[in-house]
Write a structure and sequence with these properties.
24% helix; alpha+beta; Peptide Deformylase; 3 helices; 3-stranded antiparallel beta sheet; binds zinc ion
């Protein structure tokens, strides 16, 4: 265990609907620990369980202050919109232009089954939507307007 292999977009696991987590046990905890290491190692902002081949409703989101563990997450509320660059660890080397809500509030369980809510704007809201989509087998390339060109990406910084 430790760092897990991240599947790429051609793998069937990334296109399936994930099942809810029912047991908040050691197996879930080691999945979360491994996903955390994998996310840090890959320098991503978020990671969903299907990206490491586990078809369960589990995602991690790095808020910049902490890495949130979201088990069985749902979107409670969204507001506004933003259109910007989005990438995915499962679609290496590419970025697309994706429209997302500017604000999002989620409800999820922690690793012990305790429910909590978290809200965020901009990148955090974008990441919540992107990662929750993964749990329903949706990759950003299916909802994006188009891929960004290299020139546009250089201009992003
Ligand atoms: Zn992704």
């Amino acid at each position: 265990m430790g760092i897990r292999k991240i599947l790429t977009v051609d793998e069937p696991a990334l296109h399936k609907t994930c099942r809810p987590v029912e047991n908040f046990d050691k197996k879930l905890h080691s999945l979360l620990d491994d996903m955390r290491q994998t996310l840090i190692d890959s320098e991503g902002v978020g990671l969903a369980a299907p990206q490491v081949g586990i078809l369960r409703r589990v995602v991690l989101v790095d808020t910049g202050e902490e890495i949130l563990e979201l088990v069985n997450p749902t979107l409670l509320e969204t507001d506004g919109e933003q259109t910007g660059a989005e990438g995915c660890l499962s679609v290496p080397g590419k970025y697309g232009l994706v429209k997302r809500p500017y604000y999002a509030k989620v409800r999820a369980q922690d690793r012990n089954g305790q429910w909590y809510e978290y809200e965020g704007e901009e990148l955090i809201a974008r990441c919540f939507c992107h990662e929750l989509d993964h749990l329903d087998g949706i990759i950003y390339t299916e909802v994006m307007e188009r891929y960004l060109t290299e020139e546009e990406l250089m201009g992003e910084d």
